[in-house]
C-alpha cells in the first residue's frame, strides 16, 4: 500500500497550477521551449525549478510525462525526496531528461544557482553512462526488461540525446553551462560512436540502403518490435530526425554522405501524394475519428510504419495483426496514435543545398533520375553554364528538378522550355548569383515582335520556381529589353532582383498564374507588362525615370490581372511623374493594396493610352495605400477605390487558385 501510494503521488496531476499570467502553457515541454529567456529569472520559474530538482534522481535522469510546473503538496515533496536514490523509471523517452537539462540551462543563464549547474552536469553524465559500447542508447537506464533495452530511435529518443551531446562536444553556446574539457572529450567520443551506430543500423532492403526503424536490437542491430501495435518496420517519422542529425555533421564522411543520399531517395520513393487525413472533432475539440480520404496532388505524407521488404504502409491494433488501411483498426488506436507524418519534407527541402555543400554531384549513371544539378563557373559543379544544366533536365519529370547555381556572373540567355516543367532554379545568393544578357529590340531586329525574343531568362515550363538570383537585361536604356519572361503557369519567384529598363518583366500565358514574393523589380516604361494573373507581395517596385509602372493586357473575363500587396513603390530622384499603369489592352486589370506609394506617383494615378474604350473596360483599383503618392481623391474618375469587403476578395487563395492546390506555398 505504501509503494502504491508513492506511485499515485508521483504521477498524479497537480492539484493546482501556479503558472503566472505571462506563462499560460499547459504542457511542461511548452514552458521550456516557448518561454522568453527573461522568464527563467522570475520567482515563478525558480519555484518550478525546485520541483525539477526534486524529480531528478541521484543517478542524473528524470522520469517521463511529468508536468513539472504543477504545484506539489508537502506529502508529494517528501515522497520525491525518499525515492531520489532509486533508479526506477529514469528515461529519455518522450523527451525526458534532455528537456529538463535544457530547462536547467535556461535557469542558470538567468540565475547563477550552482544547483542548476550541478543538475545539468548530472544529467549529462547520466546520458554518457547510459550509452551502449556499440554507440546506441536504450529507452530506459538502468536497463528495464523488455523492448526498452533496444536501441531506441522511437519518438526521437536517441537523437534528442545526440543533439545534447553534439552541442557539448562542439562547445557551442546553446547551453549556458560549460562542462570540463574532460567531459567535452567524452562527449566527442560518445557522439562519434552514436554516428557509427546510426550508420550500422540503416536498413538494407535487397542490398540497397533505405531508412531506419523505431527500434533496433542492441546486439544484432536488426529491426525489433516494441509494443504490440509497433511491429518492426521502416519509419517515415523517426528516420527524419536521424537524417537531419547526419546532415548537421560538419565535414561528413563518405559513409554519412551515402547514408543521407540513400535515405533521401527512399523518402522520395515512399511519399504519398494521393491521400489526406480528415479529423472529426467533438464539441470539446477532441479527435473522435480519423479518416484517410483520396486527394489529387495532396501535400506529401509518409506512413509511420512501412513493410521492411515492400515499403507498403501497415497499421496494427493491440492484437499485433497487420492491416492495410487505418480504417481496419479500432477507434482507440486509430485516433490515439500518429500513423502518418509530413516530417520528411524538412529533409527534402534542405537536401539540395546540403548536397551542393558536400560535393554530391549528378553522375552520368544518375541522369535519368536526376533531382539535383549544380552549376559552378569554377568547374566544381556538374556544368559551368546554366543552359547546359537545363539541357540535362528530364522532360516532363514526375518530381522537382533543382538547378543550383553557385555565385558568379553568368553571361548567357537561358530558356526553360515547356517540356522542362517542375524546374527549381536556385542561386547561392541574390547579390552574387547573376544571370545577365544584353539583347534588345534593335539588336534582335526580327520585326515588330522583336521584344519577345529579348529576354535574358525565358520560362515556358509550368511549375517553375526561382530564388536567390539577380536577373538582368544589361542593354541599358535602348528600347524594349526583357530581363525575365514567364509564360508558364504556377511560377513562383522569390527573393530575386530583376533589373532592366523598358519592358523589364513580361508575364503571359493562357490562364497563367504567377507569384512574386520579396523581390526587387526596376525599370523605366511599362516595366511590368503582360496578360497573366500575377500577385506581387512584399516587393520593391523601382522606377528609373518618369513613365509607367505597369501595362497589363488582361484577357476579358479574367477575375484578376496584376495585384500588388504590401509593396513599396520607389523611384530615382529624376523620376517625378510616374503612372501606376496604362492599358496595353482595354480589359487590363491592376490593383495596389496596402502599398506604400512614393511621391513620384502622379495624382491621377492612371492613363488611358489614348484608348477611350479602356476607361469603360479596365479595372484599375486601390485599397488602403499610404505615402505621398496615394491621393485617392485626385485619381482619374474611371479608377476604383475598393471597399474592405471588395479588398477581401484579393486573397492569395482567390488570386492564384489553380488545379494544383496551394502551389504557391511550396
Write the SSE topology:
Blueprint: H1 2-11, H2 28-34, H3 43-55, H4 74-83, H5 98-110, H6 114-130, E1 151-152, H7 157-169, H8 181-201, E2 204-205, E3 208-209, E4 215-216, H9 238-247, H10 254-270, E5 275-281, E6 287-294, E7 302-303, E8 315-316, E9 322-323, H11 331-335, E10 340-341, H12 344-357, E11 372-375, H13 386-391, E12 401-405, E13 408-411, E14 414-416, E15 423-427, E16 433-437, H14 441-444, E17 457-459, E18 465-467, E19 470-473, E20 484-486, E21 491-494, E22 497-499, E23 505-507, E24 513-517, E25 520-523, E26 528-530, E27 533-537, E28 540-543, E29 548-552, E30 562-565, E31 568-571, E32 579-581, E33 589-593, E34 596-597, H15 612-617, E35 619-623, E36 640-641, H16 644-648, H17 652-656
Helix pairs in contact: 3-5, 5-6, 7-8, 9-10, 9-12, 10-12
Give a brief outline of the structure:
Residues 1-21 form the signal peptide. With 666 residues, this protein is of the alpha/beta class.
How would you describe this protein?
The longest helix has 21 residues, at 181-201. The chain starts with a helix and ends in a 10-residue tail after the last helix. The strands form 8 sheets. An 11-stranded parallel sheet has the order 11-12-15-18-21-24-27-30-33-35-36. The radius of gyration is 30 Å and the shape is elongated. The protein is built from 17 helices and 36 strands. Among the domains are: 2-201, Glycosyltransferase; 407-665, Single-stranded right-handed beta-helix, Pectin lyase-like (Pectate Lyase C-like, 3 Solenoid). Helix 5 packs antiparallel against helix 6 and helix 7 packs antiparallel against helix 8 (181-201). It has 666 residues and is α/β, with parallel strands linked by helices.
Amino acid at each position: 500500500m505504501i509503494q502504491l501510494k508513492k506511485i499515485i503521488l508521483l504521477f498524479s496531476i497537480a492539484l493546482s497550477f501556479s503558472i503566472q499570467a505571462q506563462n499560460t502553457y499547459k504542457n511542461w515541454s511548452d514552458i521550456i521551449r516557448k518561454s522568453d529567456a527573461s522568464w527563467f529569472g522570475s520567482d515563478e520559474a525558480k519555484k518550478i525549478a525546485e520541483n525539477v530538482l526534486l524529480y531528478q534522481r541521484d543517478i542524473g535522469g528524470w522520469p517521463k510525462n511529468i508536468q513539472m510546473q504543477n504545484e506539489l503538496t508537502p506529502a508529494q515533496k517528501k515522497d520525491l525526496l525518499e525515492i531520489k536514490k532509486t533508479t526506477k523509471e529514469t528515461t529519455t523517452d518522450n523527451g525526458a531528461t534532455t528537456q529538463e537539462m535544457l530547462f536547467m540551462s535556461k535557469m542558470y543563464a538567468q540565475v547563477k544557482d550552482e544547483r542548476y549547474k550541478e543538475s545539468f552536469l548530472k544529467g549529462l553524465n547520466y546520458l554518457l553512462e547510459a550509452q551502449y559500447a556499440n554507440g546506441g542508447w536504450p529507452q530506459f537506464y538502468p536497463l528495464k526488461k523488455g523492448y526498452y533495452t533496444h536501441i531506441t530511435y522511437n519518438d526521437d529518443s536517441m537523437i534528442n540525446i545526440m543533439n545534447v551531446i553534439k552541442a557539448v562536444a562542439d562547445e557551442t553556446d546553446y547551453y549556458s553551462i560549460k562542462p570540463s574539457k574532460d567531459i567535452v572529450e567524452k562527449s566527442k567520443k560518445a557522439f562519434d560512436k552514436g554516428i557509427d551506430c546510426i550508420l550500422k543500423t540503416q536498413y538494407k532492403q535487397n542490398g540497397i540502403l533505405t531508412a531506419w526503424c523505431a527500434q533496433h536490437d542492441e546486439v544484432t542491430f536488426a529491426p525489433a518490435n516494441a509494443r504490440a501495435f509497433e511491429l518492426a518496420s521502416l519509419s517515415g517519422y523517426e528516420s527524419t530526425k536521424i537524417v537531419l542529425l547526419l546532415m548537421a555533421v560538419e565535414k561528413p564522411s563518405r559513409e554519412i554522405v551515402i547514408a543521407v543520399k540513400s535515405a533521401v531517395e527512399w523518402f522520395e520513393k515512399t511519399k504519398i501524394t494521393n491521400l489526406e487525413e480528415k479529423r472529426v472533432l467533438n464539441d470539446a475539440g477532441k479527435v473522435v475519428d480519423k479518416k484517410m480520404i483520396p486527394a489529387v496532388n495532396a501535400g506529401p505524407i509518409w506512413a509511420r510504419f512501412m513493410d521492411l521488404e515492400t515499403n507498403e504502409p501497415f497499421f496494427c491494433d493491440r492484437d499485433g495483426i497487420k492491416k492495410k488501411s487505418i480504417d481496419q483498426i479500432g477507434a482507440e488506436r486509430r485516433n490515439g496514435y500518429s500513423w502518418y507524418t509530413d516530417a520528411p519534407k524538412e529533409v527534402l527541402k534542405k537536401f539540395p543545398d546540403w548536397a551542393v555543400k558536400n560535393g554530391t554531384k549528378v553522375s552520368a549513371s544518375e541522369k535519368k533520375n536526376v533531382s539535383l544539378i549544380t552549376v559552378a563557373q569554377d568547374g566544381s559543379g556538374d556544368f559551368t553554364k546554366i543552359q547546359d544544366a537545363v539541357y540535362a533536365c528530364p522532360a516532363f519529370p514526375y518530381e522537382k528538378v533543382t538547378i543550383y547555381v553557385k555565385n558568379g556572373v553568368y553571361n548567357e540567355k537561358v530558356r526553360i522550355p515547356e517540356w522542362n516543367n517542375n524546374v527549381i532554379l536556385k542561386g547561392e545568393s541574390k547579390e552574387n548569383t547573376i544571370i545577365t544578357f544584353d539583347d534588345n529590340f534593335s539588336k534582335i531586329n526580327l520585326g515588330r515582335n522583336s521584344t519577345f525574343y529579348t529576354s535574358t531568362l525565358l520560362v515556358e515550363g509550368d511549375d517553375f520556381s526561382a530564388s536567390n538570383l539577380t536577373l538582368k537585361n544589361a542593354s541599358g536604356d535602348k528600347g524594349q529589353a526583357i530581363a525575365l519572361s514567364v509564360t508558364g503557369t504556377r511560377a513562383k519567384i522569390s527573393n530575386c532582383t530583376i533589373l532592366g529598363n523598358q519592358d523589364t518583366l513580361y508575364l503571359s500565358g493562357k490562364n497563367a498564374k504567377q507569384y512574386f514574393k520579396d523581390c526587387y523589380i526596376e525599370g523605366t516604361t511599362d516595366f511590368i507588362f503582360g496578360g497573366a494573373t500575377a500577385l506581387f507581395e512584399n516587393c520593391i517596385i523601382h522606377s528609373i525615370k518618369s513613365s509607367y509602372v505597369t501595362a497589363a493586357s488582361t484577357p476579358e473575363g479574367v477575375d484578376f490581372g496584376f495585384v500588388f500587396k504590401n509593396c513599396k513603390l520607389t523611384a530615382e530622384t529624376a523620376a517625378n511623374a510616374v503612372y501606376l499603369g496604362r492599358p496595353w489592352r482595354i480589359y487590363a486589370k491592376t490593383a495596389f493594396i496596402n502599398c506604400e506609394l512614393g511621391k513620384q506617383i502622379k495624382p491621377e494615378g492612371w492613363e488611358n493610352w489614348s484608348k477611350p474604350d479602356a476607361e469603360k473596360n479596365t479595372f484599375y483599383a486601390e485599397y488602403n495605400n499610404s505615402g505621398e503618392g496615394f491621393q485617392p481623391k485626385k485619381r482619374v474618375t474611371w479608377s476604383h477605390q475598393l471597399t474592405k469587403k471588395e479588398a477581401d476578395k484579393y486573397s492569395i487563395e482567390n488570386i492564384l487558385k489553380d488545379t494544383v492546390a496551394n502551389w504557391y506555398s511550396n
